[in-house]
Amino acid sequence: MKRKRIFLTALLLAASMVSAGCSIPQKDTTKYKIAMITDTGGVNDQAFNQLAWEGLQKFSEESGAEVSYIESKQASDYVTNLDRATDGFNDLVWGTGFAMADPIATIAKLNPDILFALIDNRVPDAPFNVASVVFRAEEPSFVVGYIAGRTTQTDKVGYVGAVKTETSNQFEYGYVSGVAYAAQELGKEIEISVQMTESYADAAKAKAVASKMYSSGCDVIFHAAGGAGYGVIEAAKEWDKFVIGVDKDQSYLAPDNVLTSALKNVNVAIGIVSEMAMDGEEIGGQVLSYGMEEGCVGIPEENPNMDPAIYEDAMELMEQIQSGEVVPPKTEEEYEEFLKEGGMKDGVQ
Q1: How confident is the model at residue 277, as a pLDDT?
Q2: What is residue 221's three-state secondary structure?
């Protein structure tokens, strides 16, 4: 009799815990859940991470998906934060930025029931549950290079990058090829200075590099150096020269000095891929490439510092890129071949 009373008491206690909300959490199958892990720039970096988060927020509004983010303060946080995201009943976990490739591969292998996606890099030997999303960054870079070549009054332009990677090569060689394209069109040579800061965060070094370029005669510089690029923009303001922004329209940072920006519409791409995932498309293990054709790269519609005639020609060039008539180089080898085919004499320093 005593055993029966104890058993009954245990059942009543369990029932009371459930009614009081003390039960073990269960997945809400009515909501598709997405988490985003930022890189060290944080969600309010006014650049890549912020664009990605804005894209997820818009997707949430349109689809009803539940979205959240976890900020990484340092690179050592990536694995920890990705692991945290697997405990939140998320269906899709995004990692932003090239540096998260290895951490995503590590955590994805431990969580085969969750889909992971990396934006702006490829995951080497990607597990079956990881999608890599990359941009054809050479396309907008070619266009802004063309604009720089058409705009320069000194026939000297510059490029400031951060660290040499496959992605940074797309920016660099797309840009210098665009300058070459303009030089060929104008029938002259344009000197191009190229330098890397070896850091995505050292704005002071980027500013010093840009200042040296401006002092040597460059009147337009394109930066693709992440947060360090703010130093290039500051230098442009001090020297009263032109700078070309990256990833998003950066004209608000220096309204009188930003000539245009090479847009990488992370917000658009993250929405496209999130929808594919939510619809159940098998995207794991794939590399998804997006460019002008998909509306994921380009330049701003409004460029008040640009000659309207140059803008019109740039729009025509974008149409030629979309149609495949013009194929921007993305590697050093492709750039060298481009020069041989009539771009210009090698003026890169």
Answers
A1: 98
A2: strand
Choose among 347, 163, 157: nearest CA to 236: 157
pLDDT at 214: 99
Buried (b) or exposed (e) across 325-349, using 16+ Cβ within 10 A? ebebbbeeebbeebbeeebbeebbe
* Neighbour-count burial of 112, counting CB atoms closer than 10 A to its CB (0-12 exposed, 13-18 middle, 19+ buried): exposed
Angle 166-186/138-151 helices, nearest 10 degrees? Answer: 40
Domain 138-257+305-340, CATH number (from 1.20.1600.10, 3.40.50.2300, 3.40.50.300, 3.30.390.10): 3.40.50.2300
Domain ranges of the chain: 33-135+267-293, 138-257+305-340
**If you average pLDDT over residues 128-140, what whole number do you get?**
98
100, 37 in Cβ contact below 8 A?
A: yes
Determine the length of the chain: 349
CA torsion sign, 76 to 45 to 118 to 28? positive
